[in-house]
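Quick question, first post here. What does this chain look like in 3D?
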Amino acid sequence: MKIDLHVHAKERSFCARDGEEEMIRAAIKRGLDGLAFTDHQRLVPPRRVAELNARYAPFCVFGGIEIRISGEDLLVLGLCDLSLETREWTYPDLHSFVRRRGGFLALAHPFRYRDWINVDVEKHPPDAIELRSKNIRAGDEARIRALGEWLGVRLLCNSDAHRAKDVGAFYNVLPRMVLDDKELVTVLKNGAVCSN
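> Answer (accepted):
Ran it through. Tokens below.
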């Protein structure tokens, strides 16, 4: 299954230029099997995720969220809890919350804003780190790989698309199709392969 796990839509992310359906159609055109909307501080309502899945099946749509803490952006997948968008999080608290609830936590575009990571990933390692996206400089790949190896976490490739033309620029290959959040988290923790 080819999936882009970091996509924004203008319905919830003020910086996105295109809407959900434009993003989905672009992903399908590029040969992806699914995507996750991870809007800034906002979740996709579960009913809307269900509507999009019904309309675009067999393409799979997942909801997630991108949360900024101490200047770092973190993706949360597999959970739809409104406290994710309404609470002021510290990184240790978010890490603990995601772990207790069985979600998936990824550090998005490391080193984008500074030459260090501004949350304690050594004490609280995420499940994954983005290796490639539209917001990661090619020159940072070696140190991202080194950070992932040091922490013993998976590496992901996602577009961080804010426009339809960027969806699927980078994506992950899962070993099988997944149809719900629980399956997505299980498969991501056991073996996504960064592509492109």
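The chain has a mean pLDDT of 94.
Helices lie at 20-29, 46-56, 83-86, 91-101, 141-151, 181-191.
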